[in-house]
Write a structure and sequence with these properties.
single chain, 218 residues, alpha+beta, Heat Shock Protein 90, 2 domains, five-stranded mixed sheet, two-stranded antiparallel sheet, 7 strands, globular
Length: 218
């Protein structure tokens, strides 16, 4: 039987976990900026699974989502390649920053991660990542400023949105590095959507080559 003391300990543990996560994210953001400005963060293209990247992001954000009693879910289209070639560190940081930002400004409802295939040929797949939330939204007059360096916007009267204002700036810089495009759709009290469209190379596995050989014959 759980006691009030047990609940207090659980809440304290959740707070400690979240503080540690935020501190780590701040440190990573500062390191990213330092590497970007010194041009020491090279593009590193490797084979990786997009699904695993999404699962890692969800795993990291699950404690705060449970604490805020939000729904965090993802959908991955069946036609997304199981393995792609690209800069998985930049993709991971882009998605983590966008999801973390969505959770921060959502007090009830959901945060959704939706991945869809836009176009594909024998060597390239263009994939869209949409981060959608039911949060407080961003006024139109402030949308041009959120990607600026160390910009923090006060979007509500609660004053409880902590951070150093670096996450979205890093997102834009990393999207530029990997030749992606980012769009923003948002209205106050109606939530926000960040839409990232990113090209990836596709490994020339035997299964993939065979698939296109068969398709080309039809």
């Amino acid at each position: 039987m759980k006691t009030e003391d047990d609940n207090d300990k659980k809440e304290l543990l959740n707070d400690i976990t979240q503080c540690a996560k935020e501190l780590l994210n701040y440190c990573n953001s500062i390191l990213d900026f330092s590497k970007i400005e010194s041009k020491n963060l090279q593009i590193t293209n490797t084979k990786f699974s997009i699904e695993k990247i999404i699962n890692n992001v969800i795993s990291i954000e699950t404690p705060i989502v449970k604490h805020k009693e939000l729904i965090l879910e993802s959908t991955l289209d069946d036609d997304i390649p199981s393995v792609v070639i690209g800069d998985q560190y930049r993709l991971y940081r882009i998605l983590l920053n966008l999801v973390s930002n969505a959770i921060k400004f959502t007090h009830q409802g959901y945060v959704k991660i939706m991945i869809s295939l836009i176009a594909m040929n024998q060597s390239t797949a263009v994939i869209r990542f949409t981060i959608k939330d039911s949060g407080i939204g961003i006024p139109k007059e402030k949308q041009n400023y959120i990607f600026e360096k160390f910009t923090r916007l006060t979007l509500s009267n609660t004053g409880d949105h902590k951070g150093i204002g670096s996450g979205l700036r890093i997102v834009r810089l990393f999207m530029k590095d990997i030749e992606g495009e980012i769009d923003l759709l948002s209205e106050p009290q109606k939530g926000t959507e960040f839409i990232c469209t990113i090209p990836f190379k596709i490994p020339l596995t035997e299964d993939f080559v065979e698939y296109y050989e068969i398709k080309d014959e039809l």
